Amino acid sequence: MATREAQPTTERTWEDVCNDPTLQDLPYKIETNAYGQIVMSPTHLKHGAFQSTIATQLMNCTSDGRVVTEAAVETEDGIKVADVAWFSSARWKQVHDDYAASIAPEICVEVLSPTNTEAEMEAKRALYFEAGAEEVWLCDHEGTLSFYDASGARDTSRQVPSFPAQIES
């Protein structure tokens, strides 16, 4: 589990983004790149439905830790926002007061948008693993989940083996 020093410039930029009232009700997911520039991706109503279903099921399948939606994570390429995340209690204690987690949650879940490419998601998985994630899950447009650890694809989650590989929106 790698920990990194907080990047003050990026953190200040992310704090500014979080506190900017003009960015509060946008129909976009906001992240930043390595230069602190805002990157926005449009989302679909189904995206939110998958996100809430995954969060609810994660809460039901885990007895410890914290499930968070829209979890901002510091990466080498700026702030990335996992649609759903699971932090162990110990890791949550380290980051719960931060605008962006300096160490990734153990599980980062991305609900794919129509504009996401395979190369983009492979790069994002690598960023989450570099930041300390133990698993990254991807949910496609049909509700099929793919589970990954640092060594590659898995049939099921090691952290939450009872989590279904198919969900409904």
Automatic annotation (TrEMBL):
InterPro entries: Nuclease_put_TT1808 (IPR012296), Restrct_endonuc-II-like (IPR011335), Uma2 (IPR008538). CDD domains: DUF820-like. Residues 28-143 form the Putative restriction endonuclease domain. Gene3D superfamilies: tt1808, chain A (3.90.1570.10). It comes from the Bacteria. PANTHER family: SLL0198 PROTEIN-RELATED (PTHR34107), SLL1222 PROTEIN (PTHR34107:SF4). This is Putative restriction endonuclease domain-containing protein. It comes from Longimonas halophila.
